[in-house]
Automatic annotation (TrEMBL):
Transmembrane segments: none annotated. It comes from Solimonas terrae. InterPro entries: Aldolase_TIM, HMGL, PYR_CT. GO terms for molecular function: hydroxymethylglutaryl-CoA lyase activity; metal ion binding. Belongs to the HMG-CoA lyase family. This is Hydroxymethylglutaryl-CoA lyase. Pfam families: HMGL-like. Residues 8-277 form the Pyruvate carboxyltransferase domain. Keywords: Lyase, Metal-binding.
Length: 307
């Protein structure tokens, strides 16, 4: 298919974006076992936690304790979410992160609820953190959240997303992420937004996609993004996830479902589908519910021979 790269990278977000909205407390030991299982399945770039106010996101209250006990793996790259300079200082002090993930919201309404920032304030905060991270030798990615639709403002003007992307390109983080935070995007919209951003900033920044499957469009949106030249995607094993500040923002796209898609399309992706499936089932047992990912229930194809 035209425009699709030969290799795909999955950024595993289940320990952070996947677990942050769970009502059942998940202890640090369980999170560490999840990370170890993901490493065993071939995941190498993992968003492990966020350095945010524990009163607002209690599932992430153990950020420092988790970082202290992260598995030592020669190829692992651990990332943490930070929303302000205070959070960045905490992440840096942990001494275990290779990357910080920053956020600018594409609507002021969502930004005020998510991190107490307008778009303008968010851009000022990311500029300062990107500079600090570069000086500290830590990679940075910036996500434009609600880039395809906002739960409070509705449709998001593509020109606004393009303007934010241009401002971020001038800050020079290591990566730009377009996020369908509430799972409203459709493939034609994904293609149009990526094309508009690329037209403005060219190849100044590598781009990746973050798609929620709230309305069952995530896989189709990933195919559209692949066709538009994007080859990096966030995904969460089992499809767990959601944003505490976005009503009904459930359903990160499942890592195993994306991996199956890419491998069946002949794209290079070094993960073990069976181990991802096992991890999805294991995580569902720990959370006490069936997870929304599909492959862990249906199994891969062709099926493995018995014995």
């Amino acid at each position: 298919m035209n425009g699709i790269a030969g290799a795909v990278e999955l950024i595993e977000v289940s320990p952070r974006d996947g677990l942050q909205n769970e009502s059942v407390p998940v202890d640090t030991t369980t999170k560490l076992e999840l990370i170890a299982r993901l490493l065993d399945a071939g995941q190498r770039r993992i968003e492990v936690t966020s350095f945010v106010n524990p009163n607002k996101v209690p599932q992430m209250a153990d950020a420092e304790a988790l970082c202290e006990r992260l598995p030592h793996h020669p190829d692992a790259r651990y990332a943490g979410l930070v929303l302000n300079q205070r959070g960045y200082r905490r992440a840096r002090a942990s001494g275990r992160l290779h990357e910080v993930c920053l956020v600018v919201c594409a609507s002021d309404s969502f930004g005020q609820r998510n991190q107490g920032q307008t778009i303008e304030q968010g851009l000022a905060e990311t500029a300062a953190i990107v500079r600090a991270a570069r000086a500290d030798g830590i990679a940075s990615s910036v996500t434009i959240t609600v880039a395809f639709g906002c739960p409070f403002e509705g449709e998001i003007d593509t020109a606004r997303v393009v303007g934010i992307a241009q401002a971020l390109a001038e800050q020079q983080p290591d990566e730009l992420v377009l996020a369908d935070t509430i799972g409203v995007a459709v493939p034609s919209q994904v293609s149009a937004v990526i094309a508009a951003v690329r037209e403005r900033i060219g190849n100044a920044l590598p781009m990746r996609g973050h798609f929620h499957n709230t309305r069952n469009t995530a896989i189709a949106n990933i195919v559209a993004a692949l066709q538009a030249g994007v080859s990096r995607f966030d995904a969460s094993v089992g499809g767990v996830g959601g944003c505490p500040f976005a009503p009904a923002a459930t359903g990160n796209v499942a890592s195993e479902d994306v991996a199956y898609l890419c491998q069946r399309m002949g794209l290079a992706l070094s993960v073990d589908l069976e181990r991802l499936n096992d991890t999805a089932r294991w995580l569902g047992e720990r959370l006490g519910r069936s997870l929304p990912g599909m492959l862990s229930r249906a199994g891969g194809f062709p099926p493995r021979a018995a014995g």
